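Q: what does this look like with FE2/S2 (inorganic) cluster bound?
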Amino acid sequence: MSAEPPESTDSSPARPATAPSRRTFIATTGVVGGSAAVGGLVTASPAFGAEPAAAPQAPPGSRLSLSVNGKRYTVTVDNRTSLLDLLREHLGLTGSKKGCNAGACGACTVLVDGRRVNSCLTLAIRLEGAEVTTVEGLADGDRLHPLQQAFIDQDAFQCGYCTPGQLMSGVGCVQEGHTGSAEEIREWMSGNICRCGAYVKIVKAVQQTAHGRG
Ligand code: FES
Ligand code: FES
């Protein structure tokens, strides 16, 4: 008795004799895909004899004169430079801190013509002729500004990262006369965040400076 060959269960159509194998197909499309990626993502070299691409342009810059802590500076800066970067990167005044770089924490607070500003949001080139005061300009030689002394007396800081901004904002707050009560000080200092939570002592330091008592 002869056995019948088993019936085939493969229902896929037979591959034509000329069809590429799976391995050939992948190799071919890999080469084509690679060529497309190179062509799409990398700038092609100019053809022989063609004009070379123009060199990248330097960003526009401006010349600027301003006073910082009573000292006159004339600098040329990229038009996009913030006052904070001008102070820290160009003038070496690193007392003003970069916290959020987005106007939300107050660590970068300085005085411009006596008014508090977030230096991270202020374009340097708008300050032609301005008088800027930073935390480095508060003390008079070895004599601390009264608010700096009050921060020490009241132990109004922990890590100290927010302190330069708190000091500059506190000086502004006192000069503006917004020190009638602890609530008023809190309101007018509310743009200055302290991650260590030293708020109660910061308010006491501002009160000590404004009224001689913490
Ligand atoms: S760094 Fe300017 S507000 Fe935070
Ligand atoms: S003392 Fe640390 S963030 Fe204010």
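The domain at 138-214 is CATH 1.10.150.120 (DNA polymerase; domain 1). The first strand starts at residue 61 and ends at 68.
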